[in-house]
Amino acid sequence: MTLKQISFPLLLTIKKKEVFTMRTAYIILNIGNKFIKLSLNKLLYISTVKKKEHLLCFVTQNETYYCKGSLKDYEKKSYPSLFRCHRSVIVNLQVIKEIDRTKKRIYFTDEKENNCIVSRRKLSELIVQWKFLAL
User: Fold this and answer.
1) Contact, 106 vs 84, CB < 8 A?
2) Cβ–Cβ < 8 Å for 39, 54
3) Tens digits of per-residue pLDDT, 22-62?
4) Higher model confidence: residue 8 or residue 119?
5) What pLDDT score does 24 carry?
6) What's the DSSP call for residue 52?
7) For 23-37, 79-93, 120-134, which range has the lowest pLDDT when averaged over its residues?
8) Average pLDDT in the chain
9) CB-CB neighbours of 58 under 10 Å
10) What phi, psi does 79 have (nearest 5°)?
């Protein structure tokens, strides 16, 4: 069955099933001598650390974790709710509260303390993906 043969409602139900299985998914972080199991429901975004090579920052509402790796590793894995919105940021579409088109910022909480940037080239694609995930 090719993609052209799939009707839109069937494609939508397939996407919803992927999102449902995503809610129970975890990312395993190797930090020094320990491993941390991080739920994707709690993850806000992943960003690179500017002054250190190959160091990633995993930001949740309450904590921040630093781990070695590259964004390509998490971009290529099959996490449908993760979206690369900038060359240095991958966001979790499930936890986005607001997208500001003029400032090109994504806000995750009502207090707007946790936010990240969006590339102008990826902004429209981000909005489409975010709206589709909300269906």
Assistant:
1) no
2) no
3) 446 889 999 889 999 999 999 999 999 998 888 999 999 89
4) 119
5) 60
6) S
7) 23-37
8) 83
9) 23
10) -110, 100
Instruction: Please give the pLDDT value at position 122.
Output: 96
Distance CA 128, CA 130 (A): 5
One-letter identity of residue 51: K
Question: Roughly how many angstroms between the first and final C-alpha of the chain, as a whole number?
Answer: 24
Cα–Cα distances in angstroms (integers) from residue 10 to residues 4, 7, 14, 56, in the given order: 12, 5, 6, 37
| pTM attached to this predicted model | 0.78
Please report the DSSP string for 8-24 in residue order. Answer: HHHHHHHHHHHHHHHTT
Instruction: Tell me whether residue 126 is exposed, middle or buried, using C-beta atoms within 10 angstroms of its C-beta: 0 to 12, 13 to 18, 19 or more.
Output: buried
Query: In 61-130, which ranges are E strands?
Result: 64-68, 82-86, 89-92, 98-100, 105-107, 115-117
Chain-centroid distance, C-alpha 70: 14
Pairwise pLDDT comparison (10 vs 16), residue with the higher score: 16
Long-range pairs for 23-26: beta carbons < 8 A, 24 or more residues apart:
23/94, 25/79
Q: Side chain identity at 116, as an amino acid letter?
A: C
